[in-house]
């Protein structure tokens, strides 16, 4: 056994085996050997691992729970459940996870989770957004958007989309907001649409320059957003039944 | 009559690591990309495979025979055979997998890799190092850092055995 060199099994074969392991095992095996550590964290390995067909026994159901802590203050807990092979009982497969950065003022999440998109989920409350990897249970608070609005105006988020730009190899979040005048300083009718895009690898937001002001409003009923074929889609709130679409490579 | 008459079965000799010889029909080894190229391009009739133990070669030839007999009607039987095929001690399964990788028998390689993955997925870090004959190149401090970062990956009944 010389200097930790893999003697028995060639490296490419080790790789083929690692690609077939569940994420939880990989989290443990990355401390076997430095080469394994850097391999399983490389973007090539991650893409290949994601593209392998999910095996049924790796699947689970994610519940978001709101637990009342004070009047008007709920904390958010995530539960990881699986269904028994024989019965239809739900049982937890790992401990609940406290989403420390998220709180809500009612028992409902402010917005339903976005995704999953290539293994990740985005959770939001009125202030914060979190990107979450259910397989590793790691999560990260996103840098808040720096784009506010002038005094006398109110900025409200109309809808959020989460997707993956396969050209730039980048997870992105898109947010459509409306800046509206607030009396007594300004008129209600002063409205402007804003669109900002968050990029995960940069952890930064940018505002799009040209936004079509005639866009219809987005419908806010559950499941009205989906990411499909490289673009986020929303139902538009008109009586014609339009669909709004945002290309994630923008 | 020309030697390549259709219908006449060509015979090939494989020589394992311990010089044991295995005589088999050439058509069987065409499942291996490596041997196929050797047979087609170099027209050899005897192939030395010094890196493969005879015991391993016996198993692989057994697979090649079964696979050649595979028809839609005995699919179920073949699946059971595959299951039994990888039901050996881990050390032997790794020998087979390494040999199959070398011989480039693609379908079997997929199956063996999955079998290895299934066998090691609940193993402890120490057991995996022994199985793959790796010495850790992390410091104990770095290792305990990993355990702190993702404690859930180290929880539960981890298997310390290497077979």
TrEMBL record, chain A:
InterPro entries named among the record's database cross-references: F-box-assoc_dom_typ1, F-box-assoc_interact_dom, F-box-like_dom_sf, F-box_dom, SCF_F-box_component
F-box domain ranges (all copies): 10-45
Record gene name: CPR30_13
Pfam family, one: FBA_1
The F-box associated beta-propeller type domain, residue ranges: 114-250
Name of the protein: F-box protein cpr30
Top-level taxonomic group: Eukaryota
Automatic annotation (TrEMBL), chain B:
Pathway(s) per entry: Protein modification; protein ubiquitination
Superkingdom: Eukaryota
Disordered: annotated segments: 139-163
Gene Ontology annotations of biological process type: jasmonic acid mediated signaling pathway; protein ubiquitination; ubiquitin-dependent protein catabolic process
PANTHER family (UniProt xref): SKP1
Binding partners and assembly: Part of a SCF (SKP1-cullin-F-box) protein ligase complex.
The family this protein is said to belong to: Belongs to the SKP1 family.
Biological role: Involved in ubiquitination and subsequent proteasomal degradation of target proteins. Together with CUL1, RBX1 and a F-box protein, it forms a SCF E3 ubiquitin ligase complex. The functional specificity of this complex depends on the type of F-box protein. In the SCF complex, it serves as an adapter that links the F-box protein to CUL1.
Protein name per its UniProtKB record: SKP1-like protein
């Amino acid at each position: 056994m010389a200097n930790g060199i893999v003697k028995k099994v060639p490296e490419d074969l080790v790789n083929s085996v690692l690609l077939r392991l569940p994420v939880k095992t990989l989290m443990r095996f990355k401390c076997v050997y430095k080469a394994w550590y850097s391999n399983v964290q490389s973007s090539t390995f991650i893409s290949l691992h994601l593209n392998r067909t999910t095996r049924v026994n790796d699947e689970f159901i994610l519940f978001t729970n709101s637990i009342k802590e004070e009047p008007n203050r709920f904390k958010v807990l995530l539960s990881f459940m699986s269904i028994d092979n024989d019965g239809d009982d739900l049982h937890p497969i790992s401990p609940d996870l406290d989403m420390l950065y998220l709180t809500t003022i009612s028992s409902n999440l402010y917005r339903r989770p976005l995704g999953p998109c290539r293994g990740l989920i985005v959770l939001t409350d009125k202030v914060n957004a979190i990107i979450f990897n259910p397989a590793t249970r790691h999560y990260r608070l996103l840098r808040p958007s720096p784009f506010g609005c002038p005094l006398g105006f109110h900025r409200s988020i109309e809808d959020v989309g989460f997707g993956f730009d396969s050209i730039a190899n980048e997870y992105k979040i898109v947010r459509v907001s409306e800046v509206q005048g607030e009396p007594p300083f300004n008129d209600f009718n002063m409205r402007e649409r804003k669109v900002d895009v968050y990029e995960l690898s940069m952890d930064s937001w940018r505002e799009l320059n040209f936004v079509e002001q005639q866009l219809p409003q987005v419908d806010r009923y559950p499941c009205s957003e989906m990411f499909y074929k490289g673009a986020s889609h929303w139902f538009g709130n008109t009586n014609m039944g339009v669909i709004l679409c945002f290309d994630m490579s923008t | 009559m020309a030697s390549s008459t259709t219908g006449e079965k060509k015979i090939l000799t494989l020589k394992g690591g311990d010089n044991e010889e295995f005589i088999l029909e050439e058509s069987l080894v065409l499942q291996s990309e490596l041997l196929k190229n050797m047979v087609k391009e170099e027209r050899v009739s005897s192939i030395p495979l010094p890196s493969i133990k005879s015991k391993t070669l016996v198993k692989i030839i057994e697979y090649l025979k079964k696979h050649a007999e595979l028809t839609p009607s005995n699919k179920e039987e073949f699946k059971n055979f595959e299951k039994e095929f990888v039901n050996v001690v881990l050390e032997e399964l790794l020998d087979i997998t390494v040999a199959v990788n070398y011989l480039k028998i693609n379908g079997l390689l997929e199956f063996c890799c999955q079998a290895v993955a299934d066998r090691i997925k609940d193993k402890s870090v120490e057991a995996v190092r022994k199985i793959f004959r790796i010495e850790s190149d992390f410091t104990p401090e770095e290792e305990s850092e990993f355990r702190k970062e993702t404690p859930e990956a180290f929880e539960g009944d981890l298997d310390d055995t290497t077979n």
